[in-house]
Amino acid sequence: MIKSHWQQIIEQAKQQDYYCQLQGEITKQRAQGITIFPEEKNVFNAFEFCDLAEVKVVVLGQDPYHGVGKGDYCHQPQAHGLAFSVTTNIKVPPSLVNIYKELSTDIDGFITPTHGNLTSWAEQGILLLNTVLTVQQGQAHSHAKLGWELFTDEIIAQINQYNDGCVFILWGAHAQKKGRNIDDSKHLILNGPHPSPLSAYRGFFGCQHFSKANAWLVNHGKSAIDWHLHHSE
What we know:
The chain is of the alpha/beta class. Helices cover about 30% and strands about 10% of the residues. The protein has a four-stranded parallel β-sheet. Strands 1-4 form a two-stranded antiparallel sheet. Helix 6 links the parallel strand 5 and strand 6. The two termini are about 20 Å apart.
C-alpha cells in the first residue's frame, strides 16, 4: 500500500492537467495493446516501503528497464517499480552488475548476490526512484516528456522541504540535473557518473557512495543502511 504522504502527493497530482494527460496517454497505449512496464500494479511500488519522513537515501534512476527476462521468465518484465532493481529470477542487468562491483570494494564483506531484487534496500528507507515511471517494452525513454518528470520533480521538492535530512545519490547528468534545487546544507548530495557500462569507468568505480552515505547517516543520528543483500531472495 502506498504510504500516506506519498498518497496525498499523488492525489494532488491527479487534479492537475499534465497528470490527467499523462495517465490518459498511458491508458490509451495499454488499450491499443502496447506493452508498458512496469505492470500497472507496480508503477508506484517505490512509494510503498517508506513514507516521506522515513526516507534516508534517494537513489535516482532514469526510466524503468524496458525488457523481459529470458528462458523460463521470458514473459516476466524486468521492471517492478524500483529503480535499478529487477524481479527475482531475472538476470542482473549491466548497471546493477556495476553497482554490485562498487559495493564489493566499498562495503566490507559485501557478497555479490545472484539476483537483482533490491526490495530489502527499499524496506530500510531507500527511495529507488526513476525520474520517469513507465516505458514501452523495448523502447527506452519512450515515456520521457509525457509528464512524469513534473511528478518526480514534485516528489524531490517534497523530500527536500519536509524530510529532516537524507542522502541523494545522483548518478549521471540526468539525475544531477534533477537534483540541482536540493538544499545541500540539509541533505548530502553525492554526484557521480552513471553505473552503466558506457560510463562506469569515468569515476563511478571508486566513488564510495555507499560508505559515504552510511557515514553521513550515522553522523546525523540515523542508523546506517545494511547494503548486504541475501544471496538469494
